[in-house]
Amino acid sequence: MRPGQGDIFRRVCSAPFPAAVATALLLFGSACGPRPRPDAAPPTATVVRSTFVSVGSPAPSVHASTLAEDGDAVVIAWFAGPYESHPEVAIWLTRCRAGTCETPRIVASGAAPDGRRYPTWNPVLFRTRDGALQLYYKVGPNPREWWGMRMRSTDGGRRWSAPERLPDGILGPIKDKPVPLASGRWVSPSSTEAPDSANAWRVHFELSDDDGRTWRRTTPRRGPVPDVDAIQPTILRHADGRLQALARTRGPGRIAVSWSEDDGESWSPLGLTDLPNPNSGLDAVTLRDGRHLLIYNHASEGRTPLNLAISRDGVRWTPLVTLESEPGEYSYPAIIEGTDGTIHATWTWKRQRIRHMEIRLR
């Protein structure tokens, strides 16, 4: 990015758009940001369908969606309740097909055996090799004291096993989906928010080589400079076998990055990308054709706009489409590629609903 271009990018991409301009951006992609490589045809995106999926939930506050494909349906979950951290906050779920969603229902709560009730947080759906769905989520009074939980479904999320608590020290995926490797290993992106006075944010990864029966943790190496405060990583897979993690930060105002060359066993010290981050969650996915998609807030503060960018190397990103640009909060996105190549993305819409968008790429 040339000197001064970043400031221009932020001003242009953060400005509210009239409805007609916003529609054109959705259909033809945003012109903001670094130019695509001259030797590559510019990628394009077409919005196939955009719907709200959390209509029917009586909760006034909804947040942190996740999604997985099940045949010709998409399973979507989120947490909702009176307000974030309220004990009645529960995990809701629906199944959507061709823009029509089933009535949302509660599938998990923070009810404890002793009768106490805690809020639930950040569900993550993950489809395993045998076709089953796993639902990971957190339970606890706050992100510094929560613990990991898991449930399983063999019928696309219609019925779920009893909740099980993950082993001490294992939180499960904190916001974004685990990545299965060719070796059979699962690499789960996770993080902690320390309860000490420093309140440090630290990225880590949880590895399983036996389909989630046992787990162990690994943490990025420390570098010569102070650690970047980062949480909620997402993982990309590269053709040369490397893994790349991108993570939310606070303070630097940019997305953090770490690399692994040994299937997630070890990770480079966290560095910073050129992409902005307003202390907000993000997600990414590696497509079957090897390209990478990143859904994030391209802003240094505030959770608008919400953007989709594409890359071939995970380093140089081309803005693809502006998904939201009006005032308000558009945050905590999730993204997957369907078996037919359709891109499915969900995100928090003003803490009132979850939006689901289907996109076709070229």
Explain what you see.
This protein is mostly beta strands. It has one domain: Neuraminidase, CATH 2.120.10.10. The chain has 2 helices and 25 strands. The protein has helices at residues 5-14, 19-28, and strands spanning 45-52, 61-70, 73-81, 90-97, 100-101, 105-108, 120-127, 133-139, 147-153, 164-165, 179-180, 186-193, 201-208, 216-218, 230-237, 243-249, 254-260, 271-276, 283-286, 292-296, 306-311, 318-324, 330-337, 343-349, 353-361. Strands 2, 3, 4, 5 and 6 form a 5-stranded antiparallel sheet that branches. Residues 1-38 have low confidence and may be disordered.
Average predicted confidence as pLDDT: 89
What share of the residues does DSSP label as strand, in percent?
35-45%
Helix-strand sequence: HHEEEEEEEEEEEEEEEEEEEEEEEEE
- In the predicted model, the low-confidence regions spanning at least 5 consecutive residues are 1-38
Q: How many separate domains?
A: 1
Biggest beta-sheet profile: 5 strands, antiparallel
Structural class: mainly beta
DSSP, total strands: 25
Q: Quickly count the helices.
A: 2
CATH architecture annotation name: 6 Propeller
- Supply the CATH class: Mainly Beta
Rg for CA atoms: 19 Å
Helix content: under 10%
Task: State the end-to-end distance.
Answer: 24 Å
Indicate the CATH topology: Neuraminidase
Rough shape? globular
What's the arrangement of secondary structure elements?
Blueprint: H1 5-14, H2 19-28, E1 45-52, E2 61-70, E3 73-81, E4 90-97, E5 100-101, E6 105-108, E7 120-127, E8 133-139, E9 147-153, E10 164-165, E11 179-180, E12 186-193, E13 201-208, E14 216-218, E15 230-237, E16 243-249, E17 254-260, E18 271-276, E19 283-286, E20 292-296, E21 306-311, E22 318-324, E23 330-337, E24 343-349, E25 353-361
Antiparallel strand pairs: 1-25, 2-3, 3-4, 4-5, 4-6, 7-8, 8-9, 9-10, 11-12, 12-13, 13-14, 15-16, 16-17, 17-18, 19-20, 20-21, 21-22, 23-24, 24-25
